[in-house]
Write a structure and sequence with these properties.
The chain has nine helices and nine strands. By secondary structure, the chain is α/β, with parallel strands linked by helices. The mean pLDDT is about 95.
Length: about 270
C-alpha cells in the first residue's frame, strides 16, 4: 500500500470519526470483547494499534489503573481527537494518544505487556511485517490480542466482490488473512508468536434490503480508497453492476432480512 492510499484511508476514517461509535453497536461490542479476552492486570503497559476513537485504549486504561499505562496509536487525526476528548471527559491520565503509522512507528523494544489491534489488521499494507514489528515491542511473555473475521463475514462486501469480478474488477478480500482459525494461527506463528489461542464469536444480524439500498453509493462517492477500482467502469457498467448487486442480495433475503454474518476470531498469543 503506497503512501497516497494510506493518506486516503486516513481521510476516510477521519470522515467517520464523529459517528464511528454510534454507526451501530458493533464497534463498541467488538472492542470490549477483545479487551475482555485479554484479561488485563493492574499496572500493565499496553499499546493499542489503530486505536481509532479509543474504544480499546480507554477500556484498557480503566482496567490497568493509575499504575498502568496505555498508548493509543492511529494515523487518522480526527479519530485521535475523538479518542482524546473521550479520555479527557473520563479523566484518564494513564492514556496517551499519538498520531502515527502503526506499521512503522518507532517505540522502545520489549516495553509493553500487551499489544492490541481491533478490527484493523486487514487494513495494513504488510501484515506479516507489522506483526513481526509488534512482536519486538513486547516483553518476554507479553501478549498480543488481535481479531479478524471469517471467510463468510460481511455479506455486502462478499456480494460486491463477486459481482465486481464479473466486470474484471478485483476488490480487496478483507477476510482472507484471518478467514479461518488455521490461517490466522499460521499468520501469527510465522511472526514468532506462540501459545496462540483463537476463539470465535458471532456479532452478526439481519440487514433490511431498505438499509442496504440506502447505504449504496457510486464509486465516485465512496471515500474508501479500496473501492476505487470500480471507477474504471463506465456509467452503463456501474448501473448494471448495481442492479446485479441488489438482485443477489434480494435472492438471499428472508422475511427477517439479509443475514450479515460477522463471525469474529479473537487471537490471544504470547511472545
Amino acid at each position: 500500500m503506497n503512501s497516497e492510499i494510506k493518506q486516503q484511508l486516513a481521510g476516510y476514517y477521519s470522515g467517520r470519526s464523529a459517528t464511528y461509535d454510534s454507526e451501530s453497536d458493533f464497534h463498541p461490542r467488538l472492542a470490549q470483547h477483545l479487551v475482555n479476552q485479554a484479561k488485563l492486570k493492574p499496572a500493565q503497559r499496553v499499546v493499542d494499534m489503530a486505536t481509532g476513537t479509543g474504544l480499546v485504549a480507554i477500556a484498557a486504561a480503566q482496567q490497568v489503573g493509575t499504575q498502568g499505562y496505555v498508548l493509543g496509536i492511529d494515523f487518522a487525526a480526527e479519530m485521535i481527537q475523538q479518542a482524546a476528548q473521550k479520555a479527557q471527559a473520563l479523566g484518564l491520565n494513564n492514556l496517551q494518544l499519538r498520531l502515527a503509522d502503526v506499521e512503522t512507528i518507532k517505540l522502545p523494544p520489549a516495553d509493553f505487556d500487551v499489544v492490541f489491534c481491533c478490527s484493523a489488521l486487514v487494513l495494513l499494507s504488510d501484515i506479516p511485517a507489522a506483526l513481526q514489528h509488534w512482536y519486538t515491542l513486547l516483553r518476554p511473555g507479553g501478549q498480543l490480542a488481535v481479531n479478524g473475521f471469517s471467510d463468510y463475514a460481511f455479506v455486502a462486501s462478499m456480494v460486491m466482490n463477486r459481482v465486481a469480478a464479473r466486470y474484471g474488477v478485483k476488490l480487496r478480500d478483507w477476510n482472507q488473512p484471518t478467514g479461518t482459525p488455521a490461517r490466522f494461527q499460521q499468520l501469527l506463528t510465522a511472526a514468532g508468536f506462540r501459545h496462540v489461542q483463537i476463539t470465535a464469536k458471532q456479532f452478526g444480524g439481519y440487514l433490511s434490503l431498505e438499509d442496504l439500498q440506502r447505504w449504496w453509493r457510486l464509486p465516485s462517492d465512496r471515500p474508501n480508497p479500496f473501492d476505487r477500482p470500480l471507477l474504471a467502469l463506465s456509467q452503463l457498467q456501474l448501473n448494471q453492476l448495481k442492479q446485479e448487486y441488489f438482485a443477489e442480495l434480494k435472492a438471499i433475503a428472508t422475511p427477517q432480512g439479509v443475514w450479515n454474518d460477522i463471525t469474529t476470531y479473537t487471537a490471544i498469543a504470547r511472545k
